[in-house]
Amino acid sequence: MTLLRLFLVRHGETQHNIEKRIQGPFLDDPLNARGLEQAAALERRFAAAHAREGLRLAAVYSSPLKRAWMTAEHVARGADAPPPVRVAGLIEFSWGKYLGTREEGETLAAMKHYHARWSAGDVGLAVEGRTGTWDGESPAGAFERAWRDIGPILDQHRGDTLALVGHGRLFKILLGKLVAGDIARMDDHGQGNTAVSLIEHDATGPLDAGWRPVFINDTTHAAHLMRAPSTDALV
After folding, report:
1. Which residues is 5 bridged to in the sheet?
2. In the chain, N or C: fewer CB atoms in 10 Å?
């Protein structure tokens, strides 16, 4: 069987992660010192897989935001892959009016409200408001926005092994849809900093469903560099 194998790699830690500030597409933070260490550990992981297991990445695609792009450079270098390619659709989920705020008080209460609705199946419910140029998104809308770019990329790479480097909430949404078949189950798939998930498809038929998980949210390469908890439950 010809397989399409897809790594999803979340970015390393940023200062705004520590502050529990909602970055989304609004705050374009670089990796902090710990994030750079995590990315270096990630690079070693992919280098070992390349050398010992014969891993070959046909391409590395990245969100254009700094925290993802810096991480993607480490992935590509470790795997001896071509330089990363920026993909606008991999940008992080937008929390609208709450972008840039901390997960506390009114913002935290709103986040819990939206999560309850989404978990109950109302994945078309968008976060209200706008911050700068960014409207709030719904999980279903974020999937459609991302898939407009990701779908054609995957279609061009049937039978290849690829890496997508991006963001926690967007990857939860993708994994909910592609693996669980239900975006409402997105929070089944935690995403720590530099978490690596591997999913695979038989490379025939539609690619927006039917993916099998090999592993999800693996951070063993940087276990000593993780803060507790290792996943961002709400963002």
Report:
1. 161, 200
2. N
- CATH code of the domain covering residue 33: 3.40.50.1240
Taking only the tens place, the pLDDT of each residue in 103-151 is 999 999 999 999 999 999 999 999 999 998 999 999 999 999 999 999 9
**Domain assignment of residue 206, yes or no:** no
Judge whether 165 and 62 are in contact, CB under 8 Å. Answer: yes
For residues 233 and 168, the answer to whether their CB atoms sit within 8 Å is no
Structural domain of residue 126, as residue ranges?
Answer: 4-195+216-222
161-166 vs 59-62, strand pairing mode: parallel
Structure confidence by residue, pLDDT tens digits, 44-99: 999 999 999 999 999 999 999 999 999 999 999 999 999 999 999 999 999 999 99
pLDDT at 199: 98
Strands (E), 67-153: 85-86, 130-131, 134-135
Residues in contact with 1: Cβ distance below 8 Å, sequence separation at least 6, in sequence order: 202
Q: Does residue 19 lie within any of the structural domains?
A: yes
Residue 213, preceding peptide bond in cis (omega within 30° of 0): no
Can you count the helices (H) and strands (E) in the chain? 6, 8
Residue 233 within a domain: no
* Nearest of 214, 193, 22 to residue 104 by alpha carbon: 22
How far apart (Å, rounded) are the C-alpha atoms in residues 178 and 175? Answer: 5
Q: Is residue 235 part of a domain?
A: no
> 202-226: per-residue pLDDT in tens?
989 899 999 999 999 999 999 999 8
**Tally of structural domains, the chain:** 1
